[in-house]
Design brief:
Number of strands: 3
Strand content: 15-25%
Oligomer: single chain
Shape: flat
Helix content: 55-70%
Number of helices: 4
Radius of gyration: 21 Å
Largest sheet: 3 strands, mixed
């Protein structure tokens, strides 16, 4: 039973993300939300709350503007979400910046630096593992 609940939540999260993305693109006319992307949605277990993760390119000021834009548009977006989807309960929307891109970029730079300093196993380790000491 839990697998079906997980699958339903995952499907609903994807549908909610798609609807909110369309709303941002086509119906929300707030310049603070231009070039903002909905990158994911995470529903609470009871589906009454949805954490909406967004990404925006820019500095902290740009992030603040996007947060303010979402705060102003949240009730409109929730109403439109309810109109477009058949849900018993339309979840409240909480907007959070998606930091996974920055985290991934930071990790990539860290691995590059470690590789440049010779602190990561490279070709010489794989050669010694195979007995090939060219």
């Amino acid at each position: 039973m839990q697998d079906k609940t997980f699958e339903r939540n995952a499907r609903l999260e994807g549908e909610i993300r798609a609807v909110l993305s369309d709303l941002l693109l086509l119906e929300v006319n707030d310049p603070r939300l231009s070039e903002v992307t909905v990158s994911g949605v995470k529903l609470s277990a009871d589906r009454s709350k949805a954490r909406v993760f967004f990404s925006v390119i820019g500095d902290e000021e740009r992030e603040r503007q996007a947060r303010d834009g979402f705060a102003a548009a949240a009730s409109f977006m929730r109403r439109r979400l309810g109109a477009k989807m058949r849900l018993r309960v339309v979840p409240t929307l909480e907007f959070l910046r998606d930091t996974s891109y920055e985290y991934g970029d930071r990790m990539e730079r860290l691995f590059d630096r470690l590789a440049d300093e010779g602190l990561l196993p490279g070709d010489d380790v794989s050669r010694s593992d195979t007995g090939d000491d060219r």
